[in-house]
Amino acid sequence: MIEKGKSVLLFLLVVVSLVQSYFLAYSMPYMEAKVKTELDYVKTEPLGTEEKVEKLIFPEQLVLHLGNDKHTVFYPSTLPYYKLIFEKLQSREFKGLTQSSINSVNWDQIRREDQGVELRFGRAVPFGLLQRIFKIDDFLFSRDSIDRIWIYASKGRDEVRTFFFSADGRNVYESLRADLTIGDVEGYVGFGQYWDPYTTEDGKLYIPEKPITRLLEMQVAFNRYTTDQMQDNLFFDPGITRTIQNSKTGPQFYTDGKRGLKVEQDGVWLSYTDPVAPTNAENDMIDNVMAAVSFVNQHGGWNGKHQLVKEIESETGSAIRFQQYYRDVPIVSGSSMNFGYMQLTLQQGVVSSYNRSLLVLGSDVTNKHSRQLPGGDQLRKLINNMDASGRNIEAIFPAFKPLLDKETVILSPVWAARLVTGEVVILSESGPVAIK
Fold first, then answer.
1. Residues 248, 345: one domain?
2. Cα-based angle 114, 79, 408 (whole degrees, multiple of 5)
């Protein structure tokens, strides 16, 4: 009898154990809600488009050396030639890289005598990121950064030479097995035979000999992201967000107790901060760029074409800036307003600040007017005056200066100048096209 009782008790214990296991297995959603973390909140609403890092890195200029000390310059807006050359080079292979001193080649002579194309990035691009754009072999010095690539057909030697220029100005890396022919180089150069002539005194700054008349002033309609949309995208739990200051005339401030959000310029500009504990560990440029692109993809997206243009190291971290383009022309706002770029500060891949425009420019334009940018001696005088003031210029390029209206943005052509400090300023406004 006792043994029978023990068997019944054991059976009941097994049944209870199975019932408990069932409830434990199938009640997890309820338990998960009790321990929900910041990362488990509802996925944010997609706003702008997502982008890959390789689409954000491209040359600021293509300088074509035509031989006989003749040159021209293509910008991303020089369509279709810029795009044709860039895409052709992306399909080529660059193997067998070897390091040399920058003084191992007479670059002044090459520039004057040999046909070639020079890709200028405007900022240092680590080899690790460059390999996402071009087919480049891994090699010993692949942690270096590059700001120029120069491909030329060596006169009298029936060969093509390809050099990658180190951003520190001391070394070059030659690809001994580049997948390029004399015919390729002649084809690139051929695109520039009848383009605007440019001259240079030092091989650094190229100046058009004639005024530039291909850019239009225009009005562009826009949409904008709302403050509520950005709160939903940037705060893990928008339900606990509170308003610190919300006025019709000044900036608007919001916080969830840790992170802060400021919207200013009449709802046009956003500044977001998320405090990150300071660290002495070294920032990795590639990791930070990848993390910055991923963050933008998840929090607002890209409102048009952008280009990686700057990294600034400071005590608060590494600031990564992306320049906005419209119709393949960069938008440079100067100091009058914040517009035309995104900037993120990161520490070891963690974003601590995020600044961006909330405007989304449309494709339809109105009130188009032909405008003219100065060239030749007039442009040289402007450059010399700025250099004389101690603000030395390392590059100039056509850009759009924005002026915000109620329902449109007016984009006016200007010459923009990047100083040796990395600052970008407006060198010259455009004027009416001269009637001949």
1. yes
2. 140
